[in-house]
Batch of 2 targets.
Target 1
Amino acid sequence: MSSQPQPSFDADQLVRDLALAGRSAQRTLARMDDAAKAAALRAAAAALRSGAAEILDANAQDLAAGEANGLSPAMLDRLKLDEARLEGVASAVETVAALRDPVGDVIDRRTAPAGMELSRVRIPIGLIGIIYESRPNVTADAAALCLRSGNAVLLRGGSEAVHSNRAIHRAFARGLAESGVPAEAIQLLPTQDREAVGAMLRASGLIDMIIPRGGKGLVERVQNDARVPVLAHLDGICHTYIHSAADPEMAVKLALNAKMRRTGICGAMETLLLDAAFPGCIDVVRALLDSGCELRGDARAQALDPRIKPASANDWDTEYLDAVLSVAVVDGLDAALAHIARHSSGHTDAIVTHDNPVAERFLDEVDSAIVMVNASTQFADGGEFGLGAEIGIATGRLHARGPVALEGLTTYKWQVRGRGEARA
């Protein structure tokens, strides 16, 4: 007896059904006031705490599978949850609940020539799709930020965290249900089939924006294949330029912090530019080398210390995410600006100087999402900017740039109030 053929998996129909349900739920969210959304998030945080045993058991399954599949120690650490980390996840949701809701803010008002009163008012974007890897805390963080800003969200987490993501989502949804928020406002894709990701990327008119959170391969795929607007950054090739008028002690401190505080984050410095007229070049490179950082430099940088290896052409365009740094010696501000324009990924670039006109020119002419003077590039973070939390860093030129938090998850509409005006 022959078996009956199994129906093929229709990813597009699945995503369509979820998206339509999410869009309907978002209309309910849009009618909820600020206090109701904040209360719903506090209830979700409480549910995460009360569901801790279930979540940690699920995470143990993911960790065991990850070890069996040969995940690196760094990846396993990203995946791991314990009681303290889970408490941090719940506390982060409460932090988002305490943030000021930007929805309804009046950006500006004016009177039209014909006499109508015009206002631009912040509104939610709609339904946001978030595709992410590894870190199960993103499930709660992304859900909280989207809900607080009045958006529904469709989540697709990585396979390595599938059990953790599902347990966190269940707990989060329980808390929201107690507060009258429709379950469809926060949905988790029920399959790990990669075709479902493709269906999300094709869902133009159903999903209003896609945000990828993960490695370069994921972000490249999303940016290349999406028919939906994408909010993302691909590389964090961040520069620090030590100008000739930099304070030597500050230069050493900021270079060490920008690179070595955490080498694996997108705001870590990947290229150091040393002004040829700066008297402390040798001290800066020695401090980095002595801290355990591998330096790859041009000929003039190599002349500063024999431990500096030769840089290849590719090094200037590489995001190492490791204790490796490219170093070049440049002849003044113009050369530094030219190097940054050629090689920066538009994420974060910094100058160290006590020359205010030079600093202001650097701020004006470097076209990156974040431009800094006398500060470590490691401050490229929504929390450090006072935004409370972020959904990611955006390096594009449309909509939001830099750390994207609640305001970055809104758009605006024009409201027109007339008194019977008719156009001639």
Target 2
Amino acid sequence: MTVMQTPPTDGAGAELAQRLRARTATVGVIGLGYVGLPLLASAAGAGLNTLGFDIDPQKAEAIRAGRSYIEAVASSDLAALVEAGTVDATSDFAQLAACDVIVICVPTPLNRYREPDLSYVKGTARTIAAHARAGQLIILESTTYPGTTEEVMRPILESSGLTSGSDIFLGFSPEREDPGNTAFNTVTIPKVVAGDGPQSAALVETFYSAFVDKVVLVSSPSAAEAVKITENVFRAVNIALVNELKVIYEAMGVDVWEVIDAAATKPFGYMPFYPGPGLGGHCIPIDPFYLTWKAREYDISTRFIELAGEINVTMPARVIAKLDAELDRRHNVPMSRSRVLLLGIAYKKNVSDVRESPSFKLLELMTARGVTVRYHDPHVPEIPQTREHAAFAGWTSVALSAEEVAAADAVLIATDHSAVDYDLVVRHARLIIDTRNAVRRAGLAAPQLVLA
């Protein structure tokens, strides 16, 4: 971590620094999803004028009407910011020219070969370059491999004829959003920042300091990019570890959840992670493979990370194998003639976020075997359109009733939402396959319960 940079004292950088400190700068945010919309609202809440950009005109329309589609931003708060004139949104990217600061919050998925897909980042950079002017600060927040800001973003932006570090200023700050986490938000989560050169670093730090409680400046964009990758590799590897321990301990007749909870009482040297049906979300299933891909450029094999990925990827198939075995053992029902109620489409509890949810893989495996599947998710009334799982778009959540539960040969708990009535499930389910230990955490005992 480095100390705060000296603010620029001349040229376009000095003028921008003054506008940031006076909070008269206009902030543009590209990509108004789970990262972009909370960022837009947080900056506006601190008195900065903000303008959101998204290729989806419905998102811009919703924001202008004060309707939030992200749980982390309340519609009442958004409406107040719109009414105050500090938030606006558009699909007209020509308006980027009016922005003093442009923050990029677009997806960085993997392609079918688990290689980085930077098409959204590159396309956005080209759009910015077409409207860039001197004195703008451009910040990438999308998670990516070390080197992206300087090796990919900078050449595209400089194709405008403007030079990074003197005409325009370039930075990177990894998003750290955690949907459903009520203890931390955009303002209270410490913000790691870096700039392409000292003037850019100072400007990035000044910008985020206007609305984030703590800003942590590191030496380079590559270091900041590596911070986010490190955070998510850490989680992916530890989740893979407990998933493997689950398999081992199950074979030994040992309850892995009991073991983890007991180990978590140690006040030092241990941090609990919990097994599940697979990895989900916009970060953990994807980000580690950005590093494995980049490492090949240096002839380095990332065996540890790739092994963790292999373990986590096998979890959905293992859950379905357990379901198959228990249907046959307990009810003599083949999967091809079974009916299953899937509890949970979201990738984690108490959110509506379905990105990379392991529930989709569970759905694929079950429907491929001829299972009649219905789902219940209090946070996902209808499955949205996704790139990888278009076949399930439009499926609607059924009401969780005694009749619905009793009609299923098995209830498969994939997401442990707090709003689910687990007592009702226990009272009426013929078989419960619980991948999250949700039933026992609810204080319930069930002879038909199987942990998976």
